[in-house]
Structures are given as structure tokens and as C-alpha cells.
Amino acid sequence: MQLIFCLWALLLALFTPALLMAQPFEPQPPILLKRTEERIIIDGELSEAAWFTGRPARNFWTIFPTDSARAEWDTEVYMTYNDQYLYVAAKCYSQSNNFVIPSLRRDYRAGGNDNITFVFDTFRDRTNAIVFGMNPMGVMREALISNGGANPGRDFDEFWDNKWNGASKIYDGYWTCELAIPFSSLRFRKGDTEWYFNCYRFDMQANVQTTWNRIPQNQPIMSLGYMGSMIWDEPLRKPSANISLIPYLTGGYSQRFVPATQNPDYRFDGGADAKIRVAAGLNLDLTVNPDFSQVEVDRQVVNLDRFEIFFPERRQFFLENADLFSSFGTLRINPFFSRRIGVTRDPSTGQNIQNRIYGGARLSGKLNNNLRIGLLSMQTARDQSINQPSANYTVATVQHKVFARSNIAGILVSRQPMGEGASGRFSRVAGVDYNIASANNQLLGKVFYHRSFSSESNRNAFAHGAAVEYRIRRLSIGWEHQWVGDGYRAEVGFVPRRNFLRANPYVQYFLYPGKSIFNQHTFGVAADFFWMPQLGRTDHEYNLWWEGSMRNTAQWEAGFRNSYVYLFSPFDPSGSGGLELPAGTAYNFSGTGFSFQADRRPRFNWRIKPAFGQYFNGYIFSLEGSFSYRYQPFGSIAINYNYNRVDLPSPYSDASFLLIGPRIDFTFSKSVFLTTFIQYNQQIDNININARLQWRYAPVSDFFLVYTENYDAPTLNTKNRALVAKLTYWLNT
């Protein structure tokens, strides 16, 4: 079996290059930019003559609900520039002014509200891009796209921040916006006369999504495989030296009450980040005594799985060029997971807490159009409360582009404990990935091999995988396999399971009904198999599903699942700490589920997802969803809930777990935001309150006030409490 998997991966690597050169749709006529000496006032009015000296982008294509028609409500994009700024403007026509604006919060996600997004591929590699966006109320967002934008959930990073300015204005039948983006906020080469560009817009009144350069409907709207061009009338001048210093001051109070009341801890501290442009596409990030207390708290989940749950990285220092470090392997066989640095778990609450970082440096970006590098080194402090020693984390990566949009990448990860409690223990991983992406994004794939080296045994210390997906308009076919040895240890990675072989084939078929209440139907079938050496097949899962969307933005999904699990270690499926099912037993069980997301345009919105069926040697019923009300444009209040009922035969435990809590998101203005979570998690008997007030008093400069408290649910006794204030300021030189 192992030999078959490896041969298949080799064939994939050798025989796909001819497919990788396929060309996308015929591109739109390029945008032409002309330099201006006119002063551009960013007020959303497009009153300056400079906007109309070049050639704009217009005649947008729809991508949803169809990809074969021009936009009924068109968009026009204008650009000009001077020595300091790239100026971008848009005129967005609409059938009325009944826009959907969920809140005034910066860095919104595009889905579910009216907005326009501008995508710039400054190095023309169709792999990485910078995103800027606006909505009709002038709310701004910026983000990074990596890996060609093939996977919206993984390749779009909205937590990245940068300094720029923008404004919008609403007129009768259309709205406009203007952006001033400093060249110092962009990465590009001296002498270039062309960038790749695309633009997409969500028009919620008509429930239509449009793009300037045409994209097939079965591709993500942010796909970099379908880009147009923007042409400069003069070669770009050398980027100015750009050094940004971001100092911070923080002060606060914290106190633990479990296992015993401890004295209050009053803290006053400071530190700084620095961003230095080393070359056109190469950036050096430095940090001294970083503090991440302002980062939004993780949402709690009910975990009935046998393995660890993944939470995404949200800390600003780790985000730019993050794909250079984090895109190796797969989400569940990842040799480097940045949240292992400076984050640990509080055993009294089960919540993630900070582990102090003394400092670090990160060099990342492009050496030339085909070669990218990354180097990261950070030092964490000792945490005596959980017996964790100080440690050094070092990561080195290199990535070289091949063919149209593919690349070969290598990584080396090292964790070296130091000082008291280190005991000479270390963990290292080296690996190579071949990432496959055709010019038109129809063919995607990956082959990787990683090996770990530790102070313990290095026998069977490998991880290998391969995947390929072929997408055309009505069909998507995919295959994935993985093979992880029992000796593979990636302590700085995310590898919740070892010692297995896995195969995962799947097929999806798409229907586009045309003129009806339905926009799209998707029918899918997938199988997932796991084997363990000496044990044979330990798991399988067969899935059938039908999902679709309606013209009123509602979405649904229905599915059937059959599972087989062989327990190679004892496991309590109730998640309650009761009697465990013995190792060496096997279970085959089936279930079904349904989900429905109501029309997102009304102010009251709801989502429901029931599921029920067999579960190991018993039964399970689950119900999750949310109710929300939007008090446009100032924010929303949502009640999220998740209920699980597990019934097992005697002597095994039954269990009922409820996870429920409101989220209050209130934006007093475009610069003052309040977010409050209240989460009751019955599985860990914890009530968590987290409130975060943010005031953006200057570009990319903030004041935060964060309050957190955890209670023991049965007694309402406080486990811990903290109040933190933090002030940051972005200085440019």
C-alpha cells in the first residue's frame, strides 16, 4: 500500500506540467494609469479631473448566480498615482440605496454585505496578492491572499493591517469610493510597468456577485488565476525606504482563584514591533516583549472528537507572508503552527493563555520574481506554573516558482528548550513540498515529505502526503492520501494524529438551474479511509451530500454519513469523563443531518443545523445554530448555540452538553468598536466573559481595553479575572 501511494505521488509530480500551462478566459482590456500632479482629496466624490485621464475598468462579469452574463448594475474603477500614493476610485451602480451594512467595524468579510474589493498582484506571480476594500459607508478592510486564493478559508488573511486612507459617498442609484494607498504600504519592484489586478463586488440587493476579469462560477471569487492588467505610463520608481516602529504600553490586573486564591498581579509593561523594508519584496519584522492581550478570544467549542481542535492564528506579527511558514503539509499535518509560540493552555479553565515572548525576528518575502524566503526566530520565557521551560523557536523556509503558478518549497523547524527545566530535549522537522496550481486554477495539487528529528527515537519519523483536484464547470474530482509514521513528532506543528495511512477520494457535481428560485445545486460523494500498521483498517467514513443556494441568499445542505471506528486506545465517546470503551473494539454507525441558513439581507437572521443517528454503541442528537439581529449600521447581537445529547447503553455514561452565548458587536463609529462574548460551556463547566473595546485614534494606532473573567458554572465561583489596557502607535519614517 505504501509503495502504491508513493508511486502515485511521483506520477502526479511528473505528468502534470503540460496541464499547468492552460490559459484562462480572454482578459479584459488593461487599466491604464497616468501620473498626476493634481491634489486628490479623499472624500468619495471623484471630483478631480485626474481620475479620468487613463482607461478605467468597466463592463464587469457576473460570477454569481451565473458566470456567463455582463453585470446588470455595472461598476467602474479608476486609477491614478503620484510619487507617494496609488489612488483608486470606484463608481458602483445599484437598483436602490437599500444597502446591507452589518456594522462599521473595519476588516469585515465580503459575504453578506454590500462592498467592493480591489486585488493587486504586484509581482505578477498569480500566487500572492494584497487586498483593499470599501463599503458604501466608507468602512475599510485590507487582507492578504496566498496560494493563489484557491481555498478561501485558508488563503485569505483578514487580520493583516496596514496604513492607508479611504472614503465613500452614497448617491441616488449608485455609490462611490476613493482610496489613497501609500506606495510604502505595498511591495513591488523598481522599473515595473505592469501589475496584475482584479476587482470583485457584492451587490446584496440583487444578490449578485461580479468581477472585472471573468472568473468561472466553480472557482473562488478571489482566485488569482484570473487576473487582468494595470499598465503604468512610466516605469515605477524605486520604493522609498520604509521603516515602521510600533511601540506599545500596557497595564492591567489579573488574579487566579483556582486551585487557590492567589494575590492580585498588577502589571505595567511595554514593548515594540518594527517593520523594515530590506528590499522591494523583502521585509524584516522585529518584536521586543510582544503582547497579544488585545487579540480576540477564541470561540469555545464542544469537543467530542478523539483529537485536538485547530484554532487559527490572529496575531499581527505572524501574519504578513504567513503562507511561507504555515502552508506546508495540510491543515492536520502541519510542521509549523505559529500558535505553538507564546500560547499555552491554562489547566484550570481549559482556555488558551499567553506564554511570554522575550522577542523575535522574521525576515520574509521575495528575492526575485520566482524565489521567496522566510526566516523566523523567537525566544519564549519560562512558565513555572505549568513547568514549561524557556525555548527558542527557529523556522527557515524557501519557495521557488515553477511552471505557471506552481512552486517547490522547503522548510526547517526547530524547537530548542533552554535554561532551567530544559533537560536537553529538542524537536526539529525538515521537509519539502511541491505545490501544483494550473494557470486557470482548474488543476490543484500537492506532494510533500517531512521528517522529524528529536532527542527521542527517530524511527518512522516521517510524514508524506499527496493530493490533486480537477475542477471544471460542472464537475470537481479529487484524491488525497497521507502517511504518517508513529515516530513523527512535530512539537511546533499541528499533527493531532500519527501512525496512519489515509486515502480520501471525492466527487462533486454542480447544477445551475438558471431562471428559478435556485441559483446552484451541488451533489457530492466522498470516502475517507484510515489504516494503521499491524491493525489494518481503523476508520472509514462515507459521505453523501446535497447543498445549494437560493436567489434570496438562503443556503442549505443535507447529508448522510456512515462511519467505522476501531479504537486503538480507550475512548469515552460521551466526552464526560465516564467509563471508556475498551481498546481493540470496533463500531459501525450511521447518521444524517441538515443545515439551513436563512436570507442574510433582513435585519433578523437565523441558522439551524440538526443532526442525529447512531454513535459508537449508542445514539447522538446535535443541534447548533444562531439567531442574530442587525441594528444597521452600528452592529449586531447574535445568540450562538450548540447542543449535543449522547445516549450510551449501561454501564457507559450518557451526556448532554450545551454551549451557548451571545456575541454583542457594537460600533459607535468607524473608529470605536465594542465586542462582547459570553460563553457557557457545559462540557468544561465554564462560563467565560470577554469584552474588548477598541479605539482607532490614528491610522493603525489603537487603544484597547479588555476584560476577561471565567467562572465555575455549577457554583458561579470565579476561576480567574483580568483587566488589561493597551496603547499602540504606528510611526513611519
Plain-language structure description:
The chain is mostly beta strands and 733 residues long. Among the domains are: 1-19 and 273-279 and 281-494, no CATH class; 34-232, Sandwich (Immunoglobulin-like). The chain has a 24-stranded antiparallel beta barrel. Strands 1, 2, 5, 6, 7, 8, 11, 12 and 13 form a 9-stranded mixed beta sheet that branches. A 4-stranded antiparallel beta sheet has the order 3-4-10-9, with no helix packed on it. The model is unreliable at 1-23 (pLDDT under 50).
Largest sheet: 24 strands, antiparallel, barrel
Task: State the end-to-end CA separation.
Answer: 59 Å
Q: Return Rg in Å.
A: 26 Å
DSSP helix fraction: under 10%
Give me some keywords for this one.
3% helix; globular; mainly beta; 51% strand; Immunoglobulin-like; 9-stranded mixed sheet
Quick gist of this model?
With 733 residues, this protein is mostly beta strands. Helices cover 3% and strands 51% of the residues.
What's the structural blueprint in terms of helices and strands?
Layout: H1 2-15, E1 31-33, E2 61-64, E3 75-81, E4 85-93, E5 115-121, E6 129-134, E7 140-145, H2 152-155, E8 156-157, E9 165-171, E10 174-182, E11 194-203, E12 208-211, E13 228-232, E14 243-256, E15 265-279, E16 282-288, H3 323-326, E17 343-345, E18 352-354, E19 357-366, E20 371-380, E21 390-402, E22 406-418, E23 427-437, E24 443-454, E25 462-471, E26 475-484, E27 500-511, E28 518-532, E29 536-550, E30 555-566, E31 586-597, E32 604-615, E33 618-631, E34 635-647, E35 655-667, E36 672-681, E37 686-698, E38 701-712, E39 718-728, E40 731-732
Parallel strand pairs: 1-13
Antiparallel strand pairs: 2-12, 3-4, 4-10, 5-6, 5-11, 6-7, 7-8, 9-10, 11-12, 11-13, 14-15, 14-39, 14-40, 15-16, 16-19, 17-18, 19-20, 20-21, 21-22, 22-23, 23-24, 24-25, 25-26, 26-27, 27-28, 28-29, 29-30, 30-31, 31-32, 32-33, 33-34, 34-35, 35-36, 36-37, 37-38, 38-39
